[in-house]
Design a protein that fits this description.
By secondary structure, this protein is an alpha+beta fold. Helix content is about 15%, strand content about 35%.
Length: about 325
């Protein structure tokens, strides 16, 4: 990725994990945005994300740290930090040093997903991830999800939202209609056609897929099944990302689908991503590609995506100026 305007990490909401992956009282080390972080769920059920290292002597809170009420306890000297990164207890001291703090990250959790806000200037969130309509009701299955680590820049994944030309040679999907919309922090693809799943069969479909910011895409698809699809990628470092994907399916004729069927559906998604991954991980990115008249609004997509690498004032000017 030689274009310097895409260096570093974009600003926005990013998926950290699915809610069921973090139990009450659990502490996990995670690495995102080139930083070591600690993820924990308090006794009250609140998910929190802090920088990982204790300011005392540098212990990593994610390895041996323990939740105590609403705080996480350092495994080295038992200093405790709440979800805002403030030191609340030093068991052998009478005073807490003023600098005994850890940077905390804005967190949002809903619809069975846990998000963290990353901002290049450490600014507050300026928009929200929307609710997934119907999620959590008896008509829809819980999320069935998977993950893949991919060695590529996130831009390559985002560009699929406009790249109609790759559907047939890469996925064998025949697209009848496709269009794109760009509105503020959202980039949308409206698409219909015929898919030929890797597991066999044929499916006439229509979908609306929207990126809400630079790293989380929600798709509502109707075909043989009606489904919610999640495609979320969170940077680990500047050359590697964690790609999370999930599906929730509506009951068909009032009958819930069995787990074996859902597992196969998710595996089809995984294999579909692998078709792209072998290209993403071995391509030479073109900052100035030679495009044809049917390549879709790639330049407009890049302009939209570039705004998330800019300061907020400049980003809003680019979107609305």
């Amino acid at each position: 990725m030689s274009d310097t305007s895409f260096q570093g990490f974009a600003s926005g909401w990013f998926l950290v994990c699915f809610s069921e992956e973090l139990a009450v009282g659990e502490v996990k080390p995670v690495t995102f945005f080139g930083k070591e972080l600690v993820l924990f769920r308090t006794a009250a059920g609140q998910a929190k994300v802090l920088d990982a290292y204790c300011p005392h002597m540098g212990a990593h809170l994610g390895y041996g740290g323990v939740v105590d009420g609403e705080s996480v306890r350092c495994p080295f000297h038992a200093w405790e930090f709440n979800g805002d990164g403030e030191c609340t207890t030093i068991p052998y001291a009478t005073k807490i040093p003023p600098r005994a703090k850890i940077d905390c990250w804005p967190v949002d959790e809903h619809d069975g997903m846990l998000f963290v806000w990353h901002d290049r200037a450490k600014g507050a969130p300026t928009w929200n991830i929307p609710a997934v309509e119907g999620h959590g009701t008896p008509d829809w299955t819980p999320w069935s999800f998977g993950q893949i680590i991919v060695k590529t820049h996130p831009r390559e994944i985002v560009e699929n939202v406009v790249d109609v030309g790759h559907f047939i040679p890469v996925h064998g999907t025949h697209v009848d209609t496709i269009s794109n919309e760009f509105t503020g922090h959202m980039a949308t693809q409206i698409n219909s056609g015929t898919a030929y799943p890797l597991g066999g069969g044929k499916d006439k479909y229509s979908l609306r897929a929207t990126y809400h910011g630079p790293g989380w895409q929600y798709t509502h698809m109707k075909g043989y099944l009606e489904s919610h699809l999640i495609n979320a990628h969170t940077p680990i470092d500047e050359n590697t990302l964690l790609l999370r994907f999930a599906v929730s399916v509506r009951k068909r004729d009032g009958v819930m689908l069995d787990e074996a069927f859902l597992a196969k559906y998710v595996e089809n998604l995984r294999q579909g991503f692998f078709q792209d991954i072998r290209i993403w991980e071995n391509m030479h990115t073109k900052d100035h590609p030679v495009l044809c008249d049917a390549d879709g609004p790639l330049i407009k997509l890049r302009q939209w995506y570039r705004t998330f690498y800019q300061p907020e004032a400049k980003r809003m000017e680019a979107l609305h100026g």
